[in-house]
Amino acid sequence: MKRDIQNVPYGYEPPAAERKGTLVFYDSFEHITDRDLEQAARTATERKFTKLVLYPLHEETVRRMSKEPVAAFYKREDRLHEWKREQGRPFIIVESLEGKRKKYTPLDSALRHISEVYPSPYFLYLTPETANQFASYASFEEWIVKLRLILSAAPAYVHPRLEKFRHRWDIAGEEKRE
After folding, report:
1. From the CB of residue 147, how many other CB atoms can be counted at a distance below 10 Å?
2. pLDDT 10s digits, 132-142
3. Where in 29-143 does DSSP place strands (E)?
4. What's the Cα-to-Cα distance from 90 to each of 7, 40, 41, 144, rounded to whole Å?
5. CA 106, CA 110: separation in Å to the nearest integer?
6. How far is CA 95 from CA 148, 157, 158, in A?
7. What's the pTM?
8. For the chain, which residues make up each domain, given as ranges?
């Protein structure tokens, strides 16, 4: 076995990584347009994330969350893969956990999977409706301290728990307030 020896000057510290973290777009992608996807990619680029993970939800998960009918999972996933190929950006990933499970996946399980597979820190990119649904879950307060939220637009109605943790989320495209 050959050793690869490298010489570095005393006190050398490797440059800090310019990009870090994972932006996860968690949605059914039923009503998400290419423009919305481009806005998410732009947000990931502007905020210098290592990865943009598109996390499409299985029909069963959507049915339990919102009771609205959606297209088959494979059709929505194929559309995301097609959009990803058109973009040609290597940092965009389409997560296929829900396709492998082929059943309802609780948000807690999805977030646990993401935290095991992708680099931290974690940011969830959500629509205002999905953010309010997330805030209504019992596990919201447990997860909001481990990740931050980026909303695609300003919500018309803000869930009380979401308002309580206002410092943990912001809106894409807006200047960060101090």
Report:
1. 19
2. 999 999 889 99
3. 51-56, 92-94, 122-126
4. 31, 15, 11, 28
5. 6
6. 19, 29, 28
7. 0.84
8. 24-171
Q: Which of 54, 57, 26 is nearest to 150 (CA)?
A: 26
Q: How many whole angstroms separate alpha carbon 137 and alpha carbon 49?
A: 27
Structure tokens at 11: 């006190």
pLDDT band at 96 (very low <50, low <70, confident <90, very high): confident
pLDDT higher than threshold 70 for residue 176: no
At residue 17, the pLDDT reads: 67
Supply φ then ψ for residue 106, to 5 degrees: -65, 150
Give bridge partners of residue 159 from the DSSP assignment: none
CATH code for the part of the protein at 24-171: 3.40.50.620
Q: Please provide the average confidence, as pLDDT, over all residues in the chain.
A: 88
**Distance (Å, whole) CA 144 – CA 165:** 8
